[in-house]
Amino acid sequence: MGEFTRHCGAPVVYFQAARQAPLADELATLADSVATSDLPDATVAADAAPRTLTAALTLLAAALPDDEPSVVVIDELPWLLEQVDGGAGELQRVWDTRLSKKPVLLLLLGSDLAMMEHLTGPEQPFHGRATEMVIDPLTPADVARMCAADPFDAFDAYLVTGGLPLVAQEWEAGWSVRDFLDHSFGTSTSALVVSGGRVLDSEFPETSLARRVLASIGGRGERTFSAIQSDGGSDVLHPGTLTATLRMLRDKRVVAADEPLSARSAPKNVRYRIADPALRFWLAFVEPALAEVDRGRPDLALARVDRGFAAWRGRAVEPVVRDALSRLLPDATWPHVDQVGGWWPRTNIPEIDLVGTTWNRDVQLVGTIKWRQNPLKADDVAALSTDATSVPGVGAGTPLVGVCPGGADTEGFATVWGAADLLDAWG
């Protein structure tokens, strides 16, 4: 947003709300943002002290020019509206009566996706009045270009940076994961170190139940409801409380709930994972290292990554691979693959990394993901063939596929996708 406002060529008002700030302070800050902007009539807001949101927005409208375009950015809108009963209605009314009559681009931003979507839902103030746009993180292909990385290293860079531009821009061309982490763990103010904390602190207080659940899923790798519930030892979470927390985290797109994909539905075998790419690596490796980084011991943080990165990456890359194949398929080779997922039973043994089906859940392929530079071998084919017999809908003729950056030294797979093939999913 900063790049846009700097280069848009129009006068700009930028206001960012603060969570749980007193309403009087927020309204004064909004008026000051108008008064200190480059609007031609910004002085109308000088020394103003609006007491209501309507008054503050009316002041904004008075400062906007009638004869040239302008831009107004209200960042973290949900935090402003949570301080005002009926605030969304006030904003809608001032838009209809005053702001919409000006040549102004009004940008309403918020990191709380559930709340932002609510504002434009049916029977809500901005239903039919706004164009919605979700600003996603950089894709793996974006990161590859930004970091000048080859396909294999690009996925490493994506997994570590989460696709956050401010983090990725610190990754220099030719760096390995170790090089980047050596740089990032060397200072407590690096983009990687501060990014996850900012994301979490803006939405979830440190002592909240949501933080506990996120630490369980992202920090300790718990995936099942029962494992998350009992992760606190003797302090077992009440099922209803955990259900509500997981629902809230899913609504906010922070956590995802995956069901096994096969010819038979299995909703009771849901597995949870961190959906926000900015938090996956951060919760697993950065948050546990914050104290070490603060006291100048990046070596301890790096040692933790050395011990756990390979196993973590093997798991973390799976949803990224499935996303890529969901974009690439169907194609000429696999014209009937409409859904891509994985499969597992209640015991998690065996786990099948890839399952491709039609919309009617007719299994078209099963596959393995081996994220390594060494090629797939005949024993990988044999292991997949054995394990796949457990998947409902898989028969003797179901094709086997593989994903491996190192390719394959066997003809047992119908298709093998490498890292470069997957990058093509994002253009």
TrEMBL record:
Q: Provide the protein name.
A: DUF234 domain-containing protein
InterPro entries per the record? DUF234, P-loop_NTPase
Q: Where is the DUF234 domain?
A: 282-373
Q: Which organism is it from?
A: Cellulomonas chitinilytica
Taking the record's annotation, the residue ranges forming a coiled coil are none
